[in-house]
Each structure stands twice: as C-alpha cells, then as structure tokens.
Specification:
The complex is a heterodimer of chains A (811) and B (250). Chain A is an alpha+beta fold. In chain A, 50% of the residues lie in helices and 18% in strands. In chain A, helix 2 runs antiparallel to helix 18 and helix 14 packs antiparallel against helix 18. Chain A starts with a helix and ends with a helix. In chain B, strand 6 and strand 7 form a beta hairpin. Chain B has 250 residues and is of the alpha/beta class. At the A-B interface, helix 12, helix 13, helix 19, helix 20 and helix 25 of A face helix 2 and helix 3 of B.
C-alpha cells in the first residue's frame, strides 16, 4: 500500500468516526486554549510593569509646571536638555472642581489636555470607545465600570459647573495619574477662573534607573526653567512601586491553575488519543491481514489523530488568545500598567506542545498495534480482558440496588487503567472547582478585612470638591486626594453636624471616624502609614492575625511589613513621631514642620497587603493624631433591613450637592473583582476539560460495551435505566476523585493564599485560609460527581437512544 | 394472564409491514402480513438476507417498521416510544439468540435474574423463579459460574431460562441451535418442544428444516423480504396447536 493510500484509509476511518474526531478536537481545543491562556497569564505576572513600560514608552519623569512662570515654548524646549532621549508635551492640565457623573455627585477630577493618544512618550492604550474627536468629549483612565452604584460607562455624562463632557473612551497610561483626557482647547474652557494654568511635560532619559539618576534628570530639565516653575515631579520608579503591589499577588493562583490545567490537559489528551487508537485495533488487525505494514499502520493512525488534533489546537490557540484579551486588559488594570497581550511565544509553545503530546500519545499505541500480528490486533481490539470486575458485579448484584445502578457501579472495574485516568481527570477538575471556591472565599475575607463592606456598607468622606480633593475613583489607580491633604479640613462644627445627621438617621446602627496619615517610627528607615479610629472600631473586621485590638492608651497593632522592617515583635514598644502640622515630602524625604513623639506598645498584628509599614490604633493609641486634618472617612454600619443605596441617597440629599460631606457605598477593590473573575474563568475551563475527559472515557467504554447494551435493551432495559447505568459507571471514580480533590484543594488554597500574602508582604489570619469546614469540603467534593455526571450524560443519552437491533449488530 | 387469540399480528387493514434500512435498497421486509395465534409455534425459514431476523426484531420491538402495523400481545408496538417498548419487551417477550448473548461479567444466576430486575419484579419472587428455571434447565448447580466457563449447550439453557424468567406470552428464538453441535442442538430442541407442549407461543427463526419440522405447527418462508407465494403457511403437523395454557409456566 502506498503512503497516499494509507492516508486515504485514515481519512476514510476518520470520517466514519465523527464523534471520536470531534471529542479529540474538542479536548485539544479546550486544553490548548487553557494552555495559551495559562502561558499568557503567567507571562503577564512576570514583570508586567517593565513590559508595559517598554511597550508604551512610559515617562521616566513627569514634571508639572506652573504656566504663569514658564511659557509652553520654554517648557517644550526642555525636551532638548542633556540626557533627554524623548519628550512629550506640554499638556495643559485642569483640576475640574465639583463634578457629577450622570447626575451623581463625584467630586473633583484632574484632566489632561492631549490631542492624541500616541506619542514619543507615554503612548496611551485605548481600552474601550474611541479617542477624542472634538470638544465636549472626555476619555477616562481605566475601563468602563458597569456595576456598582455609580457606574461610569461609554456615553456617561460628566457635568462640571455649566460644562458637560461625554465619556467617549477609556484608556490606560503606564505612568500617568490622570483621571482622564480632553482636548487641549477643552482644558482652557474647563479651567476655573483664577486658577493658575499648569502643564505636564513628559520625559525619557538615557539614565533613569534609580532615584539618584532620576533626581539628576529632574535637576537637569529644571535648570532650563525659571525658579519655582516646577510644581511637582513624579518618576517612573514611583509608578512602578505602585503597580507591582497587587500584581504579584495574582501570580501564585495563576500558576496553580496553569499547573492544574496543563497536567489535566496532558492526562486527558493522552487518554483520548491513545484510547482512539486502541479502539481501532481490530480495524488495524484487518488492515494488516490485507497487507498493511507496521510503518503504514503508524502513519495511518498518526494521520487519523493528526487532522482533528490540528484543527483542535489551531482553534484552541485562537480561543485562548481571544479569551486572554479581556483578562489581560483586566490584569493590566490590576497591575496598573497600560496594556498586556498574550506573548508571541505562548501562541507557538501552547499549540506545538499540545500537538507534540498528541502525536506522542498516538504514536505509542499505534506502534504497539503496528508490531502486533494481525490476529493479535484483532483480539486486542475486542472488549476488556475477561475476569476483570466480575467480583464487583457479583457484590453489587447482592446489594439492594436497582440493577442498572449495580451494573453501572461495577463497570469501572473492568477497565482499571482507563478508570484511573478518568479518576485523575475528575480529581483535577474537582480540585480546580474546590480551589476556586476556597480562593474566592479567602480573597473575599481579605477584601472584607480591607474594605469592611459587610459591616460598614456606607462610607462618608469629605466632599473635597468643596475643599480641594476628591474621593477615590473606581478604576483609577490612585486616590485623587488623600486624607487631610485638602486645603480645608472639616471644622469641628461640620464634624458635629455630620454626627448629628448620622444619629438622626433611623437606619444608622453605628459609625466610626477613620483617621489616616503618615508617621515616622524609630527604627524604620522610611515612613509608616497610621490608621487610627476615633472611637470603638472593634465591630469592623480588621483582619487581626495575632494579638488583640488596641484597647488602651499607647497600644497599636502593626502590619507584617512593620514587624519585618523594624525587627520588632508583639509586646515590644516603638517610638512614633506624629505630625502636628506641615507634612511635606515622601519616603526618606518625609518632613514634619511640627510633631510630637509617643511611645506605643505593639499588641497585635493585622492583615495589610503592602510593603509599606502600617500601624493601626484606637482612640487612645496616638494622642493628637485624631485631628480633622487626618480625617479620612467615616465607616457607617446599618441596622438590619436598611437599604444602603436608599440610605446614601437620603444622606446625600441631606448634605446637598455642595455640602461638606459625600456618602458613598463601600466597595471591594478592583483587584478582588478581577481576581474573582480570573479564578472563575480558569476553574470553569479546567472543569469543562475534565468533563470532556469523562465524556471521552464513557464514550469509549460505551463503544466497547455496545453489544452488551443491545442485550440489556433486548431484555427490557428502558432508556432511563440505560442513562442511570451509564452515569453510575462514573460514580466510583468520581467518589474517589472527590475524596482526593477535596483535601488537596484545601491544602492548595491554604498554600496559595499564603503565597499570595507573601508576595503582598503580609501574613494572613487563619480565617483567610481556613475557609472550608469538614461539611463544606464534603459538599464541595460533590463537584467531582457533578463533573463526572455532566461528562457522562451525553454518551449516556446516546446509549439510551440507540436502537437495540443496531446495538446487537455492533461488534 | 389473559391470552390474545392472535399473539402476533403483522399488518392491518392498510396493508402489510415493510422495513427498509436504506432508501434505494430493496426492503428487508416487503409488505408482509402474518398472524400467529396464542400457543402456536411458527418456524420462519428462508435463505440468508431473506428478512428472517428483521421479522424477529420487529416482533420483539427491537426495531421499528418503515410502514405497517405490528401488534404483539394486544399492543400496537410500532407506535410505542423506546421506554414503552422496553417495558413491553420485559413483560411480554423472551428472546433466545443464536450466540446466546449472555453477559460475560455476570454469573449464570445474575444473567437469568436480569430481565426480572429490569422489569422491577419483587426480589424474592424473581430469585425463586430464576432458581426454578435453572433447575428446569438442569443447570442449577452452575448458577454461580460465569458463562465463559460453560459449554454452548449450557449457555443456551441459561439463555432460555433468562428468556422465560418474566413468563412472557411470546418466546422468540433466533437460530437457537445454530451455534451448537448436533447432540446439544437436539437437547435444546427438546427443551423448546417441552415449552411448546405447555402452550408457549414460539416464533422460531431457523435454517434447520429438521428443527422446524419437529417443533413448528407451521412454517413461514421468506425470500427477499416477502412471504413466498404458497402463502407461507405450511402445516407441518396434522394436529392443531395445543390449547393455550399459561405460557412458560412449568
């Protein structure tokens, strides 16, 4: 037989086994898509900022310059200063004071005037919509926020005084911290009267690898400007530090899912492909008896598997790439970088790896078939070796079970090898599902400890539109104005009025003021952040890991970063310098005009995912810190049955649009939303692949036993009984898989959350990892049964529909 | 059990029964009309490919006719859904296959019990009936063995016991001695003759004129899917069929 003839034989065989070809194609599609996605996400977790910074030509330095002191031309000329390799700008800047988005109060927004998204520095990546085409339009930083009480979408209208702006797009800047972009002409129109014009100038330098070089660069360009013209400067090093915080946290669970997904893909593909070849042994025997050589047998069956495999991996690569687009856009948001995309190597390695694996899995059984004599191949192609599983049949027949159930339960023991592979496929799938549930629960608890949304669904902040700052904006990487940094801290009368308003609301259960600011701690080289509650805050979940909540004078809890960097431990004392006026600078350059020093005792360790040391206290912890200048926000707990949205509406109506205070819902961080979405998608893909693995095994077994199926039907087995029998055939491996998967997933959850915490420079309370009770685990182990049953249902229904006479004729 | 006067009625007022497997290919059964009375044993004979097995499959509800009515034990089975057909088979039909079609991974007793279990028969009653039948077939001592360890004759006895366990009105036998040696075939023939003598309605598909001549009240000859022009009704025995009794009861 010629090679072409062999291929023709293969094609003929394949066309007659459409279901098998479809299963191979589907399994490889899902597996390759998972692998591509996994590689893309792994790549995204690897130095995401550096990758995006290089791709988008991020600004090494951004200067904000007072327009009254330096003209645009003079500022533009700094682009030719020594060491500057590229520059962009000047871009006029406008701080739009009080604003509303779709009629809801939103506080002030800083906007930058840019004619185009591209440029030699800080190339913006458009996430949605389009770039500005005229006046009255704005492109916002981040992605559309469809959910929540204050959604911002394409078409949303921002009102600033008498001006309105329509949101026409969303974009990301790798180093910029703007809320959005408008045309340069729009900036002039929006800038409030009497406010000095400011502009931004962006630079890239030959040397900007560290703070010393950046400072030298800033000095170099500042020399060409009038003294006092530079209002502020930010460097890429700060942006990088801000971006990496949350990003690296993703890595452990993405790695965990990638490993699970890849291991299962290997297992299932090997099982599907080797099973497909083994199922053809009888045919191979017949072909050999007609003169086919061993080499031709291998060629034929590699070809037979190859075509559907090729289609599957090609489609899977495309699917993985397509799926990675929204995920990587989200992860870019989390990492605080402009954009991410699946690396080119992932689009090569994933399909080639899967194809190689497929060919290897097909090659070994095909080689075996090629070496068998014709009669041996025909014999090997028949049903499983006699004797296997007989004892189990005998046992189940003695049990008081419906007969189809008993026969189904005994079936897996006839093919122990195939059953083992199925068992592990189900175990991987169930493990992924349980792991996803555990991870989501653990992350939920971490989110809870960070946001307190459950106990305090409402927060109240100073309406900094009236005092120069603004609230945090969902989707924006930075908080526009920090606590106590507005020009006008609330007065005692305003605070008293707020308390009065809260006390008057029937839905108010309790509330607490939260003070936030920078302090210096002896023994720490840089600054530390302090969060101090104005009254009892023990009703908030603060993520206490060890020790207790501060309850007396001079007692504080601290973060893991604080303990690590200071070398202190619970029970030790620390000397804290609290500013009483004039806070300037950051990090090592933090300066206080006046301050007081207190000695505090560390009584506990709190969950705080940050490399920045953190200190948390009660009303008596740091005397002098709970002053209006440090007031960050109020957490408000509501009485049962009170609608948070109605409460917020009512409170804001009471405050008025130009009032001192702004009530808003406490929301989870974007990181948690994206992490949950990622976890869900990855778990779903792994579970679907596991289900396909089960489907394939059941399909192969059903084919093996098709004659028996005919006998059952001839003896009166009803379609419903057939379905029960086939589905029950996956129950034993599913039960064992569930028993393996549940503790494995629990251990994986604990290890992953701890690894995530480690990358976030924090420990975690036991409650974050102990997310499963034994009852929960037992219940979740049913995921294995669900995956198995879902995978078996389709072949079971095919078996139920088959005509008895047809099944009896089958060999 | 109330027996119908005709246990099998192939065809009706609108014509005979046709079964075509593929369009453009001559049908396996072509406009066949046939009635079989309760207690009657009918042999269906004909060359290979003449439609014998198709007729048997349609009678058992294992397959559906392309056109025409098939009434068995008083039920129009050509109209039944798969679940109803399965129930029908379990209650009214016992089938003996040429190659036994025993389930190799079940013991002899479990093989015999299976149709009763699928039909939802009470456990104890089904077991007693199966043991009784195994005793009648002379293989009670082999009840815990697996079919693979038994001779062809013993396997066919198991198959007969299995076919009778639900006390069906109709016993269909597809070449029941076709895979057996002469002596063993004769044993099986005697067993079937006993059943016939007890009033069991039997449809026997066979190539063996001897078997047909010994067992059947009449023979239906099929050629190319049609009953032969002699009417297909050849009385093989002068005596009429025995009066109906409870089929299969021993």
């Amino acid at each position: 037989m010629s090679a072409a003839g062999a291929v023709r034989t293969a094609s003929g065989g394949m066309l007659r086994h459409k279901v098998s070809a479809l299963v191979i194609c589907a399994v490889l599609l899902i597996s390759t898509a998972s692998a591509t996605l996994g590689f893309a996400l792994l790549s995204a977790t690897s130095a995401p900022f550096d990758t995006a910074f290089a791709a988008q030509r991020g600004a090494d330095v951004t200067l904000t310059v007072n327009g009254l002191k330096a003209t645009g031309a003079r500022l533009a000329a700094t682009g030719h200063a020594a060491g500057v390799t590229a520059s962009a700008g000047p871009f006029p800047e406008a701080q739009v004071p009080s604003s509303q988005i779709d009629g809801q109060p939103f506080g002030p927004i800083p906007l930058l005037g840019r004619a185009s998204a591209g440029g030699p520095v800080d190339d913006l990546v458009l996430n949605a919509g389009h770039w500005l085409t005229g006046p009255g339009q704005v492109v916002l930083s981040g992605t559309p926020q469809g959910g929540g009480p204050q959604p911002v979408r394409l078409g949303s209208v921002i009102t600033a005084g008498s001006q309105t702006l329509t949101v026409v797009g969303f974009a990301n800047s790798v180093t910029g911290q703007e809320f959005g972009w408008v045309t340069p002409a729009e900036v002039t129109r929006l800038r409030p009267a009497g406010v000095p014009a400011e502009s931004e100038m962006l630079y890239r330098f030959t040397r900007a690898a560290n703070y010393a070089q950046v400072n030298a660069d800033v000095a170099a360009v500042s020399r060409d400007l009038p003294k006092g013209a530079v209002s502020s400067s930010t460097s890429w090093l700060t942006a990088r530090q801000n971006s990496n915080g949350d990003g690296a946290i993703m890595e452990p669970f993405v790695v965990a899912f990638a490993v699970i997904g890849l291991a299962m893909a290997v297992l299932i593909v090997a099982n599907v492909v080797s099973g497909a070849v083994a199922a053809q042994y009888r045919r191979i025997g017949v072909l050999k008896s007609l003169g086919m050589t061993p080499g031709q047998v291998v060629t034929v069956y590699l070809g037979r598997i190859g075509l559907p495999a090729l289609i599957g991996v090609a489609a899977g690569t495309v699917l993985g790439d397509v799926l990675s687009v929204p995920l990587l856009a989200d992860s870019a948001g989390v990492y605080g970088v402009g954009s991410q995309s699946a690396p080119f190597w992932a689009l090569i390695v994933a399909p080639l790896g899967m194809l190689a694996l497929t060919m290897l899995a097909a090659f070994l059984p095909a080689l075996r078939a090629g070496r068998l004599s014709a009669t041996q191949a025909i014999a090997a192609g028949h049903a499983p070796r006699t004797g296997r599983g007989y004892l189990v049949h005998r046992v189940t027949s003695r049990l008081r079970l419906p007969r189809p159930v008993g026969i189904g339960l005994a079936q897996p023991f006839a093919r122990p090898g195939r059953t083992l592979v199925t068992l592990f496929a189900i175990a991987f799938g169930a493990c992924a599902v349980i792991f996803a549930v555990g991870l989501t629960a653990g992350l939920g608890r971490a989110e809870q400890a960070q946001t307190h949304a459950a106990e305090a669904p409402v927060t109240i902040q100073q309406n900094l539109g009236q005092s120069g700052g603004g609230p945090a904006v969902e989707g924006h990487p930075v908080k526009i104005a920090g606590p106590g940094r507005g020009p006008k801290p609330p007065t005692a009368a305003q605070i008293a009025a707020l308390s009065s308003a809260l006390n008057a609301r029937p839905g108010t259960a309790r509330y607490v003021a939260d003070y936030f600011g920078l302090v210096r701690v002896q023994g720490l080289s840089g600054q530390a952040t302090a969060q101090v509650f104005g009254s009892d805050a023990s009703w908030l979940d603060l993520g206490l890991m060890s020790g207790r909540f501060p309850s007396g004078p001079g007692q504080v809890d601290v973060s893991n970063a604080f303990l690590t960097q200071s070398g202190l431990k619970i029970g030790d004392t620390a000397t804290v310098t609290v500013p009483t006026s004039g806070v300037t600078g950051q990090g090592p350059d933090l300066r206080f005009a006046t301050s007081r020093t207190d000695t505090v005792t560390i009584v506990g360790e709190i969950f705080a995912p940050s490399s920045s040391p953190r200190l948390l206290g009660g009303p008596e912890s740091l005397p002098g810190f709970t002053v209006p200048a440090n007031l960050d926000q109020y957490y408000v707990g509501l009485k049962p049955g009170t609608s948070a949205a109605a409460y917020i509406r009512s409170l804001n109506a009471r405050f008025g649009p130009s009032g001192e205070w702004l009530a808003m819902p406490e929301q989870g961080g974007q990181f948690y939303l994206i992490a949950d979405a990622l976890v869900g998608l990855l778990a779903l893909m792994v579970a679907v692949a596991a289900g396909l693995g089960v489907l394939n095994t059941v399909l192969m077994t059903t084919r093996d036993k098709v004659h028996d199926l005919g006998i059952f039907k001839a003896l009166g087995m009803r379609p419903g009984q057939t379905i029960v029998m086939v589905v029950c055939s996956v129950i034993p491996p599913a039960v064992i898989a569930g028993a393996i998967a549940a503790p494995a997933a629990a251990a994986l959850t604990t290890a992953t959350i701890k690894a995530m915490a480690g990358t976030a420079h924090t420990g975690v309370p036991a409650s974050f990892t102990d997310v499963f009770s034994p009852a929960d685990l037992a219940l979740l182990a049913l995921a294995a049964l669900a995956i198995a049953a879902a995978g078996a249902l389709l072949p079971a229904s095919w078996a139920a529909r088959s005509r008895p006479a047809t099944a009896l004729r089958a060999e | 059990m109330t027996l119908q006067s005709d246990v099998i009625q192939f065809g009706g007022a609108s014509g005979g029964v046709t079964k075509a497997y593929q369009p453009g290919v001559p049908p396996a059964l072509d406009d066949v009309s046939l009635s079989i009375a309760a207690g009657e044993t009918v042999a269906v004979m004909g060359p290979s490919g003449s439609g014998k097995s198709t007729l048997l499959n349609l009678t058992a509800g294992l397959d559906r006719p392309t056109s025409g009515e098939v009434t068995v034990a008083g039920q129009r089975i050509d109209r039944l859904g798969e679940a109803a057909l399965a129930k029908f088979r379990a209650r009214h039909v016992g089938i003996i296959f040429q190659f036994f079609n025993l389930l190799e991974d079940l013991t002899v007793l479990d093989n015999v019990l299976l149709p009763a279990q699928l039909a939802g028969a009470p456990r104890r009653k089904a077991r007693n009936r199966a043991i009784e039948l195994l005793g009648d077939m002379g293989i009670y001592s082999r009840r815990d063995d697996y079919p693979a360890r038994m001779s062809g004759g013993q396997r066919q006895r198991v198959a007969i016991a299995r076919a009778l366990v639900n006390t069906p009105e109709l016993l269909l036998a597809d070449e029941p001695t076709g895979a057996l040696d002469t002596a063993t075939g004769a044993e099986i023939r005697d067993l079937l003759a006993d059943l016939h003598a007890q009033g069991q309605t039997i449809v026997l598909v066979t190539h063996d004129p001897g078997l047909a001549g010994t067992l059947a009240d009449r023979t239906v000859r099929l050629v190319d899917g049609k009953i032969t022009p002699d009417g297909g009704l050849t009385d093989l025995r002068s005596s009429s069929a025995p009066a109906p009794t409870q089929a299969g009861k021993r």
